[in-house]
Amino acid sequence: AQSVTQPDIHITVSEGASLELRCNYSYGATPYLFWYVQSPGQGLQLLLKYFSGDTLVQGIKGFEAEFKRSQSSFNLRKPSVHWSDAAEYFCAVRADTGRRALTFGSGTRLQVQP
Amino acid sequence: DGGITQSPKYLFRKEGQNVTLSCEQNLNHDAMYWYRQDPGQGLRLIYYSQIVNDFQKGDIAEGYSVSREKKESFPLTVTSAQKNPTAFYLCASSERSEAFFGQGTRLTVV
User: Fold this and answer.
1) What is the pLDDT of residues B63-107, one digit of tens each?
2) Could B104 and A90 be called an inter-chain contact, meaning their C-beta atoms sit closer than 8 Å?
3) Minimal Cα distance from A93: which residue of B?
4) Among A42, A102, A109, which would you mutate to test the B interface (most chain B Cβ atoms within 10 Å of its Cβ)?
5) DSSP letters along A2-51, please?
6) Is the pLDDT of residue B30 over 90?
């Protein structure tokens, strides 16, 4: 069964600083990987996804993520954080066969200081 | 607009009552899912359905039931057997790629 670990529960960065959110996954085959963002009391919005091909994927709102098979990682990055990026971020993995439901990490809450 | 509609947004349940959360989608997706979200625990899968008239238990199905009689609809019933039902519930649907989420229902036991 697949699993996802987000080691950082809470991160605080200053506005304009760079950001990296960590995600490690466990899955036996090539995973489908996702990053979602959630504002308080809202649903989840997809930031980006990786299925195959180029290991550096671009998403919405200036986010990008890099798939590193050797490290079983899919870290999310943004070069310059805006105050509106404050939210909770979830990494997720999905199998390509059988149960195709997403398995989520426990999330990282991002605070942005002015 | 295409999307997923969950209702109600807020729901209050007395102990011992069953309640049903609605989830409707007009994206023509075959697969639908129910997740439960608790602070610090991410999203946990309750039930999923990959096609009409078929559904499977997820990781935390005890105390919940579902039906999938129509492609567009996947209601979740929280039964009195669920001992700790207070949580945020999210419904999602997908086709071949990413999942799309509704805005959630916050259920509180009073």
Assistant:
1) 999 999 999 999 999 999 888 999 999 999 998 778 999 999 999
2) no
3) B98
4) A102
5) -EEE---SEEEEETTS-EEE--EEE-SSPPEEEEEEE-TTS-EEEEEEE-
6) yes
